[in-house]
C-alpha cells in the first residue's frame, strides 16, 4: 500500500461525513445497486502506445505487465479494501483501447470513498506495493460511492461472500451456512465453442479435436439470461448458460473447473490471446473478449447460487511448466488477473493445484504453494477459501502444509480425491484440522476410480456408498464423472448433465434435508447405533448428531435397525422419530416416540427391507 494512504483516508473521512451535494460537488458520486451487488468501474486512462494500445501490445507498453491499477474502497466505518484492476481494452469486449476496470462487491451500506492509483513501470503489475511506478491519469482521483441497503434477492447476491469463519463449513456474510453438493466434471467446463478464440490443442481424447457445445442445454436457456455473439453465432452463450440453469434446477450448487489446462489433459482452456505455445508473449497477453464472456458465465452462476471452484494448475509437468515457477511473472500475472477479473464474486474457492503430491514427489513444493496462496491473499478483498487437491487416498500434503505453522494457515479447505473409504477419509481430514487447531472445510472433490466415477447406471450405489457417507461425516461433495465416450461423456467430454440426473436429484434431496437442521453444529457419531443387521457391502449405519437434541441416521441396506444411545439427553426427555425416503426427502409412514436418557430400540424401517432409509430423531 502506498505511503500516502493514511492521508487519503483522512481526506475520504471528511468527504464521507458530508453528502456530496453539500460542499463536495467536485467529487463524482458513483452509483451502486446495493450491498453484495457487484460494482464495475471503468477508467479511460492516459496509457498509449505507437499505433494504439491493444491486448497484444508488448513492452514497453505491455498493458498486462507494465501498468498497474489499484483502487482503495473505504467505507464510512473505516474499513479499507485494496482492489487490483485489469486491462479491459475498449471496455466493451473489444481488443484495443486504453480502458482499465476494477470490480468490487461492497459489503456495507452508506457512502464509500474510492481512491485510484494508476502507475506505469516495467513489469510493475507483478511487483508488490513497495515498488512504485510513474503516475498516470486517473492516478490520485477520489470518488464517492453511495451503496443502498441490501437489495439482492437471488443466489450469492442475497447472502453475501462465502467465508471460513472457524466452523466446519463455509458461511455467507449474512450468517447463512453453506453445504455443497456440486459437480467436479467436466473439469474443462470452459472449453466451450461459444467463447471467442476457443481452441483444442490436442489433449484428451486422443486423436480428436473437441470443444463443448452443450446442445441439449440450449433449451434450458431462458429469456433475459446472458447471451452473446461469437464466431457469427448470435446465440453463442445459450448452451453453457442453459447448462448452469439445468444444474441449479437439480440442486447442484458448485462447479469445479480449470481456467488453464494447456500442457495438461484437455489442452482446450486458457485465458490467453494465443495458446499454441508457452512463449513469454503468449502467457502474458489475455483475450479481453473471452474474459468478458467468462465473466458473464460466472456472474450468472453466482445469481443461481453456484460456487465457482477455480482449479489453478494440473498435476502434469507440461501444465505447470506452461506458466513457469510459483513466483514467475507469468504465474503471478495469471493469479492476479483471475482475482482482479473474477475474485469480486462472493462465491469463489481457489484450488492451487490438482493432485498435488506430498514432498518429495510434489508438483509444487509446500513453500511454493504458500507463496501462491499469499500472492492471492494480497490481491483479494474477499477472504475466499484456498485449497489444494490431493493425490488419491493421501492426505500427507495437508499435514505438510499445516506443519509450517503460521505460514500454512492459508490452507482453509481440503480438496480430497478418494477412491474408497469415504467416511474414514472425511473424518480423518476433520481430525487433521483439529490437530493443528485450524478452521477449515472438507470437500470430497473427486470420488471413485479414475475411469468409472458417476455414470447413468450407478445412481443407487453412489447414494448408498458415498453420498450419505460423506455428508453425515461432516463433508461436502462434488461428483466426478469418470472417462467415458459420448453420448455418456465424462470428465473431459461430458455434454449433457442429464446423464447424471439421478445422482444430482439424490444429492439435492440429501442437502435440502440437512439444510432444515443445524448441520454446522452436528458431528459424526456412528458408534451411537449398535446391533443393526447390515449388508457388509454398505457397512454400518451412519449417524450425524447434535447430542441430546437431534440425530440423523442413515441405513444403507438393513433388515433390523438395532439400538441408539440417547443418554446425552436427560432421563424423562422424549424424542420423535420419523422415517424418510432418502431418494426424495419425503416422510414415509407415521412418526413414533422414544425416551431419552439411555439406549433404546429402534423400529424396523418401512418396507421394502434391504433398501436405504433415513431416520431423524428430534427431541421434543
Commentary on this structure:
- This protein is of the alpha+beta class and 620 residues long.
- The strands form seven sheets. It has an eight-stranded parallel beta sheet with strand order 13-20-19-18-17-16-15-14. Strands 21, 24, 25, 28, 29, 30 and 32 form a seven-stranded antiparallel beta sheet that branches. Strands 1, 3, 4, 7, 8 and 9 form a six-stranded mixed beta sheet that branches.
- Strand 24 and strand 25 form a beta hairpin.
- Helix 10 (459-471) packs parallel to helix 11 (501-514).
- The model is unreliable at 18-26 (pLDDT under 50).
Secondary structure layout:
Layout: H1 5-16, E1 29-31, E2 39-44, E3 67-75, E4 80-84, E5 86-87, E6 99-104, E7 110-120, E8 134-135, E9 142-147, H2 155-159, E10 162-164, E11 170-172, E12 177-178, E13 181-183, H3 238-249, E14 254-257, H4 288-303, E15 307-311, H5 317-322, H6 329-342, E16 348-351, H7 366-379, E17 386-392, H8 396-402, E18 411-418, H9 422-435, E19 441-447, H10 459-471, E20 476-479, H11 501-514, E21 523-524, E22 529-530, E23 533-534, E24 542-546, E25 550-555, E26 558-560, E27 563-565, E28 574-581, E29 586-587, E30 592-595, E31 599-601, E32 613-619
Helix pairs in contact: 6-7, 10-11
Shape: globular
Give the C-alpha Rg: 26 Å
Question: Which structural category do the helix and sheet elements fall into?
Answer: alpha+beta
Strand order of the biggest β-sheet = 13-20-19-18-17-16-15-14
Taking the alpha carbons of the first and last residues, their distance comes to: 56 Å
Strand content: 15-25%
Low-confidence stretches: 18-26
CATH class of the largest domain, anyone? Alpha Beta
Number of strands: 32
Structural domain count: 3
Count of DSSP H/I helices: 11
What's the pLDDT, averaged over the residues?
92
Task: Output the CATH topology of the largest domain.
Answer: TIM Barrel
CATH homologous superfamily title of the largest domain: Glycosidases
Assigned CATH architecture of the largest domain:
Alpha-Beta Barrel
Major beta-sheet overview: 8 strands, parallel
The helix content is 10-25%
